[in-house]
Task: inverse folding
């Protein structure tokens, strides 16, 4: 397990969290290079299918980050995000995944340091969890066995 | 209208780049005027850029401000002049000649790429003014990380080269050759049609308060310093610590009215209007930040939370978040012996002398006009009032004493951000009214490029440009390797690496490469799409390529800068990011922006002061307006009001306004009219009116809701049972008519907060304190012998209104405070009245016998739900219209093309109604000036054959952009209303909805590619 380098997909909303990630860069806050960012307009546009697809294709962890509640550029998109992530956590557990592999964070455009900290912490947690089980490799997991 | 020059110019100058200046500039630039934005510092953003959070929504200040700054920075009709001062202004309204001086920056803005190497190499450390001097920056610096323009500067006063003649380290290491020590100050002249002053305020310097020891004790700090301590970009990285010993404070006190409502230590008799709210906000945020239970106490005289949703914020802080409020003005701050802690000595309301110990004391400093701005006003020949703010009339709240020069923000009077933003839009409206005949004359509209034939883009030929960004990317990521890797990816037909992809010459090479290699999609691997996508999109557009056939791979901000110590992993990540971008752009099709026509006219609902001012402001800009009024006359509540707070009579103003509106050729008035039905959307509304029983249809592009509010008719305090009990509006009339009841009254009492700040109406009605005090003073003037009492909970004479509160006390009017739990008792005693009230200073009941009683009753809206439904706009729980954003979009709705003004938005005095009405007209004009409504681009699209008509998308759309087609049983997106968030796409169970530009397929491909290596 020592050399395990997790693969992490991050969906970042354009207005807050992607900007926070940029600010981490501008401020030169360092974090592990395991993360691959997909920019979306709103965290509310990340569907359960997108998250599940990432796990199906071998992601070890998925981070969804958006504006703080009340700050959504689209007024209330992130309320939908909360609902979906809650739902997905249950679904992942049902499928035999540790729901800690999916993480929701609110990161504002001013929180460069928080972005770096979240990525550091999440990468570390996923490292401890080890590689994600593969849907294809262990089909019985989908039955909750 | 004022006399204006014959030779009008279609440009304006905005002095000051804070939030007010930015809003004024954007409104003008969006309505066809060219704007010179003059900013004295290195970057725009003003005080708001240094705030941590904003009340009452606790939004992150920078997050909501930054998009406006970026918009300002890249607007083709705005030229930002930093480090620039206005010297002299000659000429007249419509045609001013302005002399300016631009100080040397010593950095060539056209070359600086904001990589920060100059600051890194600069050996000289300087106190960082952006952090209130609490941290240090270099002599080569950028004002703050999100600054616009994002360009470094050299601080001549501290630069070692300027001091000692050698160093120039910045010049040696700058990869772009941007340092220019030969730079010199420049004098120049600009000609503009109008000037808007938005120079802002200076926080009061509390050093002169000897007994507060700000100058001596490091743990006595100002509220601005505390903002920076709370901020994640501040001196402690957002950790709540006191700077003397980095200890986390456990007890913090805020002292209100430092430099406000004070004629002893300073000359600021006025109330600064914002400190109560910011202190509550700081206390709440501090409690949130603190890792242990924090004792937060606010020492105040009156809690002035009269703005929209402020009272609820105050109540929550008190009841839920546990902020402690103590009504007292603290006498002195001493150091607790042997510690860094502080001792506060104060007297409570009952007169007991108390002492408490705190770790940190925050002085809630007031707002004042800086000496530089006063000097500017003198040079510009602008009058100031006794508060040293620009002198304005309540009936022309943004017009200075010099025609053609307008004012907004804190230089108009101390105020908060929403009010500043409203005034900024109002000042833009005044400019647009003055210069309406020359609109568009100073701007150039670039011809839209001819787009490539769809056939040419069908099969992808992708060009990939990998940027070194000087050494910013190249020193970590192996750029040549990434370039060679890109060459191997599907559909890639061309690759190139460059030192600075954003430079003008690379942009030209990119255009050549597109033409020579028949490229039809472009990927740039460099910095952030948030800052650079528009630039590259414009470049490819110039070759006829649809701007959406572009993708940025962020290999700097999110790669080389954050994985400094892992060059190999960073290079692998860069390859992945390029691969993801290539895969995404290959699936991208050109996106069409549909152009919908606009009906260039407005509908204003409500014929009171706000409605008439809004209608006039639109008509004066050249747009036809239909003004709808329910009653048979115009005027609304203005007809009942006697004066503005400063004593200026309302009637002459109102008569003249009605006359102007009635005689205006572009205004059609419909009295005795109501609305039956509204269809359509921004640019294309169709409204059916009931005009005195007859149906009439009006087509209009924009709508302004100004339906006003009403006085609450009290059920308490014996109201209605005696003709000696009045509401304030009735008292206005009784005074105007010199009715016997008033003239002969030997004693008069006013009761405040009647129906306001109660569980049923948990808001402050904002105007009643001033209104009662005006009438109290008038009664005292009619009969100086009369005893006049005001029974109040907090006196909320914010801003310069504080002066009438002082005047009232000087005239012998007595103020007795009461609590909600112990309201005064009113009894009828034959022909007279008797009130019993508990006086907290005497600590006993006081009985008043009186001749007349005035109830300061609440303001409330009536029957507004149907209107809200018709225009698909929200109401708040108290029944007032809810704007798009309480801070920065105070007159807009989330639904585009509909605006709000006046009392229907929130209780407010006449001058604020007028400013808001003009602001609504300015915002509405930004729609009407457009040639068309551009719809589409990144917008949702529903594949009808996959839609099952479940309407999940319709329910989650906050913009009302989705409708259900009953006949087909399908949903449809109105692209004119869609904002492109994509929430509907994620909600659709069959993925029939897709966000164009971020389609499901593209997201899946990006995921696949991210994980394929």
Result:
């Amino acid at each position: 397990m020592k050399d395990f380098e997790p693969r992490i997909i991050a969906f970042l909303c354009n207005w807050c969290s992607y900007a926070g990630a940029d600010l981490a860069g501008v401020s030169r806050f360092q974090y592990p290079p395991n993360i691959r960012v997909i920019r979306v307009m709103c965290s509310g546009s990340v569907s359960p299918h997108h998250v599940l697809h990432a796990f199906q294709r071998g992601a070890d962890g998925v981070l969804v980050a958006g504006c703080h509640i009340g700050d959504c550029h689209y007024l209330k998109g992130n309320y939908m995000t909360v609902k979906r992530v809650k739902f997905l956590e249950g679904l992942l557990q049902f499928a035999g995944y540790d729901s800690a592999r999916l993480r929701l964070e609110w990161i504002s455009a001013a929180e460069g340091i928080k972005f770096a900290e979240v990525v550091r912490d999440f990468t570390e947690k996923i490292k401890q969890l080890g590689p994600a089980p593969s849907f294809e490799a262990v089909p019985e997991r989908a039955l909750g066995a | 209208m004022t006399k204006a020059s014959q030779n009008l110019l279609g440009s304006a100058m905005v002095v000051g780049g804070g939030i007010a200046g930015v809003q004024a500039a954007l409104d003008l630039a969006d309505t066809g005027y060219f704007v010179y934005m003059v900013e004295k510092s290195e970057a725009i953003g003003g005080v708001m850029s240094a705030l941590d959070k904003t009340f009452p929504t606790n939004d992150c200040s920078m997050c909501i401000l930054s998009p406006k700054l970026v918009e300002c920075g890249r607007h083709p009709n705005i030229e930002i002049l930093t480090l620039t001062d206005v010297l002299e202004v000659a000429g007249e309204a419509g045609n001013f000649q302005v002399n300016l001086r631009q100080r040397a920056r010593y950095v060539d803005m056209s070359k600086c790429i904001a990589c920060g190497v100059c600051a890194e190499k600069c050996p000289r450390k300087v106190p960082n003014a952006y952090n209130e001097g609490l941290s240090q920056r270099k002599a080569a610096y950028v004002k703050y990380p999100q600054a616009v323009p994002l360009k470094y500067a050299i601080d001549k006063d501290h630069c070692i080269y300027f001091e000692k003649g050698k160093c120039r380290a910045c010049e040696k290491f700058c990869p772009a050759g941007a340092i220019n020590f030969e730079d010199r100050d420049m004098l120049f002249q600009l000609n503009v049609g109008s000037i808007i002053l938005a120079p802002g305020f200076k926080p009061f310097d509390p050093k002169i308060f000897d007994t507060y020891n700000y100058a001596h004790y490091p743990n006595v700090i100002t509220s601005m310093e505390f903002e920076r301590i709370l901020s994640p970009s501040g001196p402690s990285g957002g950790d709540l610590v006191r700077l003397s010993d980095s200890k986390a404070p456990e007890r913090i006190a805020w002292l209100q009215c430092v430099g406000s409502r004070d004629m002893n230590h300073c000359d600021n008799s006025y109330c600064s209007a914002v400190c109560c709210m910011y202190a509550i906000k700081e206390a709440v945020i501090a409690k949130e930040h603190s890792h242990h239970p924090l004792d937060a106490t606010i020492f105040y005289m009156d809690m002035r939370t009269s703005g929209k949703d402020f009272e609820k914020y105050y109540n929550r802080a008190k009841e839920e978040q546990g902020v402690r409020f103590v009504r007292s003005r603290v006498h002195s701050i001493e150091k607790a012996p042997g510690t860094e802690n502080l001792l506060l000595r104060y007297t409570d309301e009952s007169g007991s002398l108390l002492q408490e110990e705190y770790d940190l004391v925050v002085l809630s400093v007031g707002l004042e006009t800086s000496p530089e701005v006063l000097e500017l006003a003198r040079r510009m020949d602008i009058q100031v009032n006794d508060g040293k703010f620009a002198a304005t009339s309540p009936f022309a709240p943004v017009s200075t004493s010099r025609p053609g020069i307008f004012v907004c923000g804190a230089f108009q009077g101390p105020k908060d951000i929403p009010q500043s933003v409203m005034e900024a839009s109002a000042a833009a409206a005044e400019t647009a009214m003055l210069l309406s005949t020359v609109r568009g004359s100073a701007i150039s509209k670039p011809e839209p490029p001819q787009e490539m034939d769809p056939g040419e883009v069908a099969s992808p030929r992708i060009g990939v440009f990998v940027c070194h960004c000087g050494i910013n990317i190249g020193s970590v990521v192996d750029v040549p390797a990434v370039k060679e890797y890109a060459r191997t990816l599907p559909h890639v037909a061309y690759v190139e690496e460059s030192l600075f992809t954003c430079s003008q010459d690379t942009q030209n090479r990119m255009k050549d490469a597109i033409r020579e290699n028949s490229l039809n999609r472009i990927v740039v691997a460099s910095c952030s799409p948030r800052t650079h996508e528009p630039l590259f999109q414009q470049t490819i557009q110039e070759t006829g390529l649809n701007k959406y056939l572009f993708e940025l791979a962020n290999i700097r901000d999110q790669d080389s800068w954050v994985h400094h110590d892992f060059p190999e992993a960073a290079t692998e990540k860069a390859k992945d990011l390029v691969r993801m971008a290539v895969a995404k752009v290959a699936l991208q099709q050109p996106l069409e922006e549909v152009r919908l026509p606009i009906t260039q006219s407005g509908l204003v609902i409500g014929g009171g002061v706000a409605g008439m001012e809004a209608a006039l402001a639109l008509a004066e800009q050249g747009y036809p307006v239909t003004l709808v009024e329910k009653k048979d006359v115009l005027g609304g509540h203005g007809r009942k009001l006697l004066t503005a707070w400063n004593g200026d009579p309302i009637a002459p103003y109102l008569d003249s306004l009605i006359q102007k509106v009635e005689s205006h050729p572009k205004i059609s008035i419909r009295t005795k009219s109501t609305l039956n039905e509204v269809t359509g959307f921004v640019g294309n509304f169709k409204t059916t009116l009931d005009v005195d029983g007859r149906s009439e249809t009006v087509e209009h592009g924009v709508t302004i809701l100004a339906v006003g509010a009403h006085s609450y008719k009290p059920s308490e305090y014996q109201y209605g049972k005696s003709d000696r009990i009045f509401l304030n509006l009735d008292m206005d009339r009784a005074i105007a008519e010199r009715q016997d009841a008033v003239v002969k009254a030997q004693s008069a009492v006013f009761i405040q907060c009647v129906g306001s700040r109660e569980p049923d109406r948990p808001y402050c009605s904002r105007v009643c304190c001033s209104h009662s005090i005006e009438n109290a003073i008038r009664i005292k003037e009619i009969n100086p012998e009369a005893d006049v009492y005001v029974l109040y909970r907090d006196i909320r004479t914010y801003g310069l209104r504080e002066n009438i509160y002082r005047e009232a006390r000087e005239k012998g009017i007595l103020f007795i405070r009461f609590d909600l739990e112990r309201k005064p008792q009113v009894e009828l005693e034959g022909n007279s009245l008797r009130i019993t009230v508990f006086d907290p200073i005497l600590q006993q009941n006081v009985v008043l016998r009186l001749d007349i009683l005035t109830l300061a009753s609440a303001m409330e809206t009536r029957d507004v739900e149907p209107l809200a439904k018709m225009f698909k706009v929200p109401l708040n729980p108290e029944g007032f219209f809810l704007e798009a954003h309480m801070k920065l979009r105070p007159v807009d709705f989330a639904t585009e093309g509909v605006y709000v003004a006046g009392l229907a938005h929130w209780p407010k005095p006449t001058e604020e109604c007028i400013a808001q009405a003009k602001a609504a007209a300015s915002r509405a004009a930004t729609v009407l000036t457009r040639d068309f409504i551009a719809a589409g681009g990144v917008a949702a699209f529903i594949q009808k054959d996959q839609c099952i008509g479940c309407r999940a998308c319709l329910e989650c759309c906050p913009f009302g952009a989705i409708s259900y087609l009953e006949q087909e049983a399908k949903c449809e997106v109105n692209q004119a209303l869609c904002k492109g968030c994509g929430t509907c796409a994620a909600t659709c169970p069959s993925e029939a909805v897709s966000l164009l530009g971020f389609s499901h397929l593209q997201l899946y491909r990006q995921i696949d590619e991210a994980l394929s290596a």
Observations:
- The first helix of chain B runs from residue 19 to 30.
- The mean pLDDT of chain B is 94.
- The CA atoms of residues 63 and 492 of chain B lie 37 Å apart.
- Chain B is about 25% helix and 25% strand.
